[in-house]
From TrEMBL:
PANTHER family documented for this protein: UNCHARACTERIZED PROTEIN YQGE, UPF0301 PROTEIN YQGE
Superkingdom as given in the UniProt entry: Bacteria
Species in which this protein is naturally found: Sphingomonas desiccabilis
Gene3D superfamilies named among the record's database cross-references: VC0467-like
Record-annotated membrane-spanning stretches: none
GO CC, one annotated term: cytosol
Classification via InterPro entries: AlgH-like (IPR003774)
Name of a matching Pfam family: DUF179
Name of the molecule in the record: UPF0301 protein EO081_02590
Family note: Belongs to the UPF0301 (AlgH) family.
Amino acid sequence: MDKAAFLAGQFLLAMPGIGDPRFEHAVIAICAHDEKGAMGVGVGEIVDGLGLHDLLRQFELRTDLVADLPVHVGGPVEPRRGFVLHSKDWGGQDTIDVAGRWSLSGTIDVLRAISEGTGPEQFLVALGFAGWESGQLEGELSRHGWFNTPSDAELLYDVPASERWERCFIAAGIDPRLLVSATGTA
């Protein structure tokens, strides 16, 4: 597969009728994608009743220097594992650059920096991730299920999770009210 066809740094938007209730109106920030598979973090839904302060307290970290932001449902794989998508102005030992658009960190170092006021300027926290084996995502993209679109920092950090799916489609020039849950054949 041509490297340009890989989707790291893009958003995957669930199409209506995707067929899996876990992904209804999902927005997935694709963090890694190559011939071996893909990994992304959900940014379109938040965990009810869990905020950043709750996570910080679990690690005995300060909460007074940071807003109690929502925690996102990152995906069905390893739902207790945390990830932070963040601006490129901070990096730790495990931080990876995602196609020059944002960074991804998955250790307590980034939470510690955030709690101390020395972390990235922009960030969001998620639990779990979405993963695809080799060729699986490409197969799903060839059927009615996902729509990929370039990512945008404003959509990632400044738009509430509840509005992100609709706003991502609009940014791609698509009115989501006109989408249907089935495809036809010619």
